[in-house]
Specification:
Largest sheet: 9 strands, mixed
Shape: globular
Number of strands: 20
Oligomer: single chain
CATH architecture of the largest domain: Alpha-Beta Barrel
Helix content: 25-40%
Number of helices: 15
Radius of gyration: 23 Å
CATH topology of the largest domain: TIM Barrel
């Protein structure tokens, strides 16, 4: 009788999976597992990674496909529900707005509660909080001549600004976001005070650094040295956003600086995206006089996102008055490849409608840099897309320790793709074309993409938030 009971218990246990992915090539960047396995999923969690077959209420044949942790994008400005659909079709299961961030953390999360296709999180942002302190209504980016961009803060304003940052962190903001090149009036002492606020909560600081170019007293090296010094003085971790976009031809030297600082024990990380062009608001301080010299480009390297036209001095002056998004062709492919393949970098899209990085970043890395160029191994690419972003956040957000991995106990946030076909389709002319080759995407064990198609009526995305104090 006991033997019969044990047999029935084992049979019941075998049937206890909600979903089984059968016979896929599992890549786990944490353990470096790269082998055919069967995955058993129950209650949104991976419960089995098995060499032998499993059974469950639903089974999906993944033979010939890669099963990897869902990709984690730390730098995604487009945070509307339609943006999440494009990200899911690119294999992304969690997106974060950590560079610009928000001034109202509670309202940001409330606006997405119960509605999101994928997981999402936000920083408390220096830019929007500075707008509040300077008496302006928070918008995405300040204009070049706005008081937010140009004014030096008083001691009282710095104290008020730090108060906003600390309140946002107390309400569970994932990080502190900075766009220092957009706020040139913010003195080094002001930035240091915000780092001190971040250090108090052990929150990482995600930075668009202060300056471009190698000439002048404020240049790309002094900008990197500013964040290195702020981390050394305060202990707050620092993360450099889109290194190839800001450093341009100096990217290799900037990565050398950051690697050397890390070797000295500083908590620094860096991201890049796999495109030769960036995109930003033409009204911003980035295009203050001297921008050609700083970035090493001219009017013809600017492309108006709305029409695709290349700019001239005349059209630049016109659009500078009206504002809008401009694509900035500023890098050769050699710079981008160096950044993408560097051991220090992780991948983050800087995604925003109007640029192909919004829809195609992950598939571009997998298709063009892994399969076509052989510049990365598949494991290296998956690590840059999943594990490294998870590790950047996990001290501040303990739940991230169960993302970016394929192991028992990890969240069932998974991407299943065809390594022989995965590729980006988005272009500068058609930036919202979804990627191909992504067969299935699961968020908390729920299919958001199945058989290459978005699934209607599902909203498994959850708020990713630090502990609220």
């Amino acid at each position: 009788m006991l033997a019969l009971w044990m047999h029935l218990a084992a049979f019941a246990s075998a049937q206890d999976f909600d979903l089984v992915l059968i016979g896929g090539r599992v890549l786990d960047p944490e353990t470096k597992l790269d082998a055919v396995r069967h995955l058993g999923i129950r209650d949104g969690v991976i419960r089995a990674v098995s060499e032998t077959p499993l059974t469950g209420r639903t089974t999906v044949d993944a033979s010939g496909l890669v099963i990897a942790p869902g990709f984690i994008d730390l730098h995604q400005h487009g945070q509307k529900l339609e943006d999440y659909a494009l990200k899911a079709q690119d294999g992304v299961t969690a997106v974060f707005e950590l560079e610009v961030g928000t001034a109202d953390v509670d309202a940001w999360y409330a606006a997405r509660a119960g509605k999101a296709l994928i997981h999402h999180g936000v920083s408390v942002g220096h830019i929007p909080c500075r707008m509040m302190v300077m008496g302006e209504r928070p918008t995405f980016l300040p204009g070049a001549n706005s008081v937010t961009a140009t004014n030096t803060a008083t001691e009282a304003q710095i104290a008020e600004l730090r108060g906003h940052i600390e309140r946002g962190l107390a309400r569970g903001a994932v990080a502190v976001g900075f766009g220092i090149q957009y706020t040139p009036g913010a003195a080094q002492w002001e930035i240091l005070e915000m780092f001190r606020a971040a250090a108090k909560f052990r929150a990482p600081c995600h930075l668009h650094i202060r300056a471009k170019g190698e000439a002048g007293p404020q240049n790309v090296f002094s900008a990197v040295e500013e964040l290195i010094a702020a981390t050394a003085v305060t202990g707050a971790p620092a993360h450099v956003c889109h290194v190839q976009s800001t450093a341009n031809q100096s990217t290799a030297r900037v990565l050398e600086l950051l690697s050397a600082a890390r070797a000295r024990g500083l908590d620094l990380s860096v991201e890049c995206y796999p495109y030769t062009a960036g995109m930003t608001d033409i009204r911003s301080a980035i295009f203050d006089p001297g921008w050609q010299r700083r970035a090493g480009i001219d009017y013809g390297d600017l492309q108006w996102a709305a029409t695709g036209e290349r700019l001239t001095a005349e059209s630049f002056a016109k659009f500078r008055q009206t504002g809008g998004m401009v694509i900035v062709h500023s890098n050769p492919e050699s710079v981008v490849r160096h950044a993408v393949t560097h051991p220090l970098t992780m991948i983050a899209s800087d995604g925003l409608p109007g640029h192909p990085r919004h829809a195609g970043t992950s598939a571009r890395v997998l298709g063009r840099y892994v399969r076509e160029a052989g510049a990365l191994t598949l494991m290296q690419a998956v690590e840059k897309l999943s594990l490294l972003p998870a590790r950047r956040l996990e001290e501040r957000v303990p739940g991230m320790k169960n993302k970016g991995r394929v192991r028992i106990g990890a969240d069932a946030d998974l991407v299943v793709f065809d390594a022989t076909k995965v590729l980006d389709q988005a272009t500068y002319e058609q930036p919202n074309q979804p990627s191909v080759g992504i067969q299935h995407v699961l968020v908390g064990g729920v299919f958001v993409v199945r058989g290459g198609a978005l699934q209607p009526g599902v909203t498994p995305g959850q708020a990713v938030r630090a502990p609220i104090q």
